[in-house]
Amino acid sequence: MRARLIFNPIATMTNAGVRDALVGLLGAEVELTVVGTRARMHAADLARDAVREGTDAVFVLGGDGTANEVLQGLAGTDVPLGLLPGGGANVLARAIGLPRDADDAARVQLERLHAGHDQRLGLGEANGRLFGFQAGIGLDAGIVRRVEAHPGMKRWLRQLSFILLGLREWATSEDRRDPACRVVGVEGLDETPRMLASVANLDPYTYLGPRPFHLLPEAGPHTALDLLVAESLTTGAIVRGILRAFRDGSHVDAPGFAMHHDLAEVTITADRPAPLMVDGDLMDHVRVATFRHRPDALRVLADLAAPADQLDADDRAA
C-alpha cells in the first residue's frame, strides 16, 4: 500500500523531530513518499500528483490551511485523506473525531486505512474554493485578515490571537457602523444588511485550547450548510454571544442573531468589497459570495459518528 505525506515546514506545531517520528510511524506500515510545501496552494498540486500516481492515501501534517489545500486536490476522487494535527487549532481533524496528538491520529487512521474503513464527508464550496468546516464574509473574514497581518502574535498566542484581534476588529470595523452583507434567497430571512454572515459545514468554528467555540452548533457531517447572520450588535451582545458560543452555542437563539440549518446553497452580496475566508484562510475581497454544499465529496480516514467534543472532554479529564 502506497501513501504520500504532505507537510507544511512552517506549521505552528511542526518541527523536524515531530515530522521524523511520523515518517517512521507511517513508513513502517505503508510505502511512503514525503514532500514539503513550498508556496501557497502547493499542497493542492501535491495532492493531485498523488492521485494521478495511483497513491492509496494522502496524509497531511500541518494546520487547517494546509489541510484545506490538500482537500482541493482530493475532493471527488477515491483517495482518502489522513489528517495529522500540526497547527495551532486543527479544527477539521478534531471536528471529525480524530485525536489531537499527531502520533495517536496516525495510528487510528492507519488502522482504518488497512481495514478499508474510510467514510465520505460532505464539503462546502465558496466561490469555487472548497472548505471543510467554516467559511464567511464580513466580520469573521475581517478577523482572519487582521490575524494574518500579525503572524508573530498568531504563532505565540495561537487561537487566543483570534479572540483578541477579533474584539479589535469588531471595535474598529466599518461593518459595525455600516453593515454591508445581504443574504439572498434564504426563506424567512430578508435582505437587511448584516455585519456577520458565517457559513458552516461542521461544528465547531474553532477551539481555544481544549474548548470548542460553537458558532453554528447544529452543523455536522450528515447535513448540508448552516448559516449564522447578525445585524449590528452592542458590546454586551457580542460578549454574551462569545461566552455562550464557548459554553453551548445558545447564542443562536439570542436577540440579534439568526441561524438557518441544512441549506444546499447560500448567496451573500456585499454593498462594498468584503473579505471572504474559508477554513481560516483569507481568499479575496468580493461583492458576491456563493456557498454550496457538495455531499460525499471527500473520503476521510475517520469515524464521522464520533462526537468531536468527546475528545476534548477526554483531554480535560487527562
Number of helices: 11
Number of strands: 15
* Rounded average pLDDT: 88
- State the low-pLDDT regions, or none: 309-318
DSSP helix fraction: 25-40%
Helix/strand structural class = alpha+beta
From the alpha-carbon coordinates, what is the Rg to the nearest angstrom? 19 Å
Oligomer: single chain
Shape: globular
The termini sit apart by 35 Å
Order of helices and strands: EHEHEHEHHEEEHHHHEEEEEHEEEH
Task: Describe what you observe in this structure.
This protein is α+β, with helices and mostly antiparallel strands and 318 residues long. It has 11 helices and 15 strands. The strands form 3 sheets. Strands 5, 6, 7, 8, 9, 12, 13, 14 and 15 form a 9-stranded antiparallel beta sheet that branches. A 4-stranded parallel beta sheet has the order 2-1-3-4, sandwiched between helices. The chain has a two-stranded antiparallel sheet with strand order 10-11. Strand 10 and strand 11 form a beta hairpin. The longest helix has 14 residues, at 102-115. It is globular and about 55 Å long. It starts with a strand and ends with a helix.
Key terms:
single chain, 318 residues, alpha+beta, nine-stranded antiparallel β-sheet, four-stranded parallel β-sheet, 11 helices, 15 strands, 35% helix, 32% strand, disordered C terminus
Briefly characterize the structure.
The protein is an alpha+beta fold. It is built from 11 helices and 15 strands.
